[in-house]
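Model it.
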Amino acid sequence: MPPDLETPVAPRTTLFAPGSLLAVVLVTSLFFLWGIPNNLNDILIRQFMKSFPITRLEAGLVQSAFYMGYFLLALPSAFYMRRFGYKAGFITGLVLFGSGTFLFWPASLIGRYSAFLIALFIMAAGLAFLETASNTFIALAGPAESSERRLNVSQAFNPLGSITGAWIGTTFILSGIELSPAKIAALKAAGRYASYVNGETFRVVSPYVVLGVVAMVLAVVIGWTKFPALKSDEAATTTERQGMMHLLANRHLLFSVVAQFFYVGAQVGTWSYFIPYVQQFTGQNEKTGGYLLTGTLVMFGLGRFSSAAIMKHVQPARLMGVYSLINIVLVASAVLHPGWGGVWAIFVTSFFMSLMYPTIFALGLHGLGEDSKVGGSLLVMAIIGGAVLTPLMGIIADKSLNLGLSYSVPLVGYVVIACYSFFGQRPQAETPG
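Modeled.
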């Protein structure tokens, strides 16, 4: 066939923009980094219940302090990066995060639960910068039509950090020493209970100090690395910076924020109370619960990598909707039939929840153009769902004395995400001109 009669071949859609590989690799390493403290929180909840006289509701304040940092700093981080760029956001975030981790040492010396909550808040303030910058950077680091798949690829390294965090916490923080009320009374009578509590409290210091050192090193490396200038989302309909009121009138973005709120609440609550769920309904010890938590995070990682591949053939929103329906069935069985069956049902939910955060984030940014940083910050602020819904699960568990019933909160979350997936993705009419 003559060359001029050949059927033209459609250009292959690239995943990342040319010249962005080194920056993308460094930013992807940040997804791994913040996965570690996110899931060390689940270990901290169990550990602090041994170190301090607190209820499940008060222990849930670990997540509240952590995600409040995200909520309060996400929007300021977006305006900061509008002025100084992504690179400044990465460096500032890493320095704040590292500073928070180093505060675990004086918090242990003080021996006050509130001091740890302050350290967690400062850590999360740094992570607000990192998540706002990283998610938006990756979503825009290539063609708009592949943004969901691109963000799922980078986000796939986040559960590897989560697995690492759960393993570190189970191995180096949880001692496996669980005292009965009678044993506690005996130690108090012998004057040795304070020594036990101090030992349990200091077990959290070393992992966090190491994390802080890694963060500071990464800040230096990123400072020396050249970052590419990113084009606005190709789906944008304007090149001008739009005001907050315009964004708040964007129904699709608002629905994305609501869906993200319920997703993060479902994820954080599921993992935060997984070890106590295992203990209450199977009689296993905290170490076994910790290893099962690590296992469910492996499922989370497998789900991230596999969903990134499946999205080459299945529309992301539709895949997320199907996964939401599966999790509704699984969590309902864990609520209604607690026991080993419920444990394995919750265990498997991590596989199907894995694609939700990056997919909601990328879908929410469609069409925002120059406002992608601010829109991304609103989606990061939705992480406050972890601070709101996790204590709510604690209240239900404390009032009912049934951790299984508390999992009705994640169940509601998956119902909201299913509605978003199937009914919240209808294209909106573009503004003329």
